[in-house]
Amino acid sequence: MYDLAVLEAWAEFAVRWLHVITGIAWIGSSFFFIALDLGLRKAEGMPKLAHGEEWQVHGGGFYHMTKYLVAPERLPDHLTWHKWESYFTWISGFVLLVLVYYLGAELYLVDPNVADIPVWGAVLISLGSLGFGWMAYDLLCKSKFGENNTRLMVLLFVLLVIMAWGYTQVFTGRAALLHLGAFTATIMSGNVFFVIIRNQKIVVEDLKAGREPDAKYGKIAKQRSTHNNYLTLPVLFLMLSNHYPLAFASEYNWLIAGLVFLMGVTIRHYFNTKHMGGEPPLWTWAITVTLFMAAVWLSVLGTPETEGEAQLSPGAMRFAEAEGFEDVHDIVLGRCSMCHAKEPSWDGIYWPPKGVVLESAADLATQAKAVYLQSGLSHAMPPANLSYMEPQERAAIVAWYRAAR
């Protein structure tokens, strides 16, 4: 039986799969070209206007690559554009944001204990912040201030930390870190779409018209590419953070995010120096480990305070009032709450998996869809059926959920 919950789950899975695939392609090509660019060497007999060359071996063959800092004398017959990886990573990520956080806003985006705002308001804040991020960053890059790249990146770090704190004042902890990742990824993809590819097209048009391309376009694109290089690893952390409540559910989650951006710099500095042929700075790993341990410490230093009982959304209220709710609540208390509790009693479990708490009736009503998919339609939960959930109990969960639909 293909009900809406099943179709929604598979749609989310398909888009997430696409997002991961395109993200791998984008990050892979980005890291490859950064390493290639840093490893270029001058050599005798290089073509006119060539900036440097590099030899590499892979897959049983040798590759001889030459870079032109501005452009070659004529446009090659075959030219590969590396852009679609970036475009589809952002598009699939945005669709995933809609499927999970906009359509599931009552569960994943809005927390009345953080900010009691309507779903439509939260969605508008989300969309507006992404647009603001790109416009503010782009204006800074184009300003006099942006001519000093080090100064610009320090200001960008400050902006990201401010946004991290701001998101935690509006959204759930999970949504806050995810949005910070989307905020940063929008800047990165905007760099590709609005600047890097656009400047490369200007150079191509100049070649076609027989004009000598202006070197400034390559310089601008190089600056944006460098920013993307240092932002990639933090974005990956933020996208993965929604699976780890120690990161997103901490009172200091915004500070953890700030430390992660610093770790992105130290890690990439090590590899960038190595690709340039210099002595790899091992001290960067000492700093990275120190920053990571600071994040670990912050994750257990405190948890967000909440006041009063959780407020049920209209959607959750429907499940709380559905036939069979009390029976399912008893089942979940007996089979699930030893792990999915604020203070789990199962040996070796120190915090609720994925941050999901299933103690109160409100908890169950809010997490109805997850319980239905994980323990009703499938046997994913309890893991290995360690708490011995019976077939009739799973059937009761299915009947209750469908009664509410």
List the helices and strands and how they pair.
Elements (H helix, E strand, L loop, with lengths): L3 H35 L11 E9 L2 E8 L15 H19 L2 H5 L9 H24 L6 H20 L4 H36 L6 H26 L4 H4 L4 H23 L7 H17 L14 H7 L4 H11 L25 H6 L1 H10 L13 H14 L1
Antiparallel strand pairs: 1-2
Helix pairs in contact: 1-2, 1-7, 1-9, 2-6, 4-6, 5-6, 5-9, 6-7, 7-9, 9-10, 12-15, 14-15
Structure description:
- With 405 residues, the protein is mainly alpha-helical.
- It folds into three domains: 7-38 and 85-299, no CATH class; 40-69, no CATH class; 314-404, no CATH class.
- 63% of the residues lie in helices and 4% in strands.
- Strands 1-2 form a two-stranded antiparallel sheet.
- Helix 1 packs antiparallel against helix 2 (84-102), helix 4 crosses helix 6 and helix 5 (149-168) runs antiparallel to helix 6 (173-208).
- The longest helix has 36 residues, at 173-208.
- The chain is elongated, with a radius of gyration of 25 Å.
Note the total helix count: 15
Nearest-angstrom radius of gyration?
25 Å
- How would the global form be characterised? elongated
Give the tally of β-strands.
Answer: 2
Total number of distinct structural domains: 3
Output the helix-strand order: HEEHHHHHHHHHHHHHH
Low-confidence stretches: none
Q: What is the average of the pLDDT values? A: 92
- Main beta sheet strand tally, sense and closure: 2 strands, antiparallel
In quaternary terms, these chains amount to single chain
Helix content: 55-70%
Estimated structural class: mainly alpha
Distance between the first and last residues' Cα: 14 Å
The strand order across the widest sheet is 1-2
Q: What portion of the residues fall into strands of 2 or more residues? A: under 5%
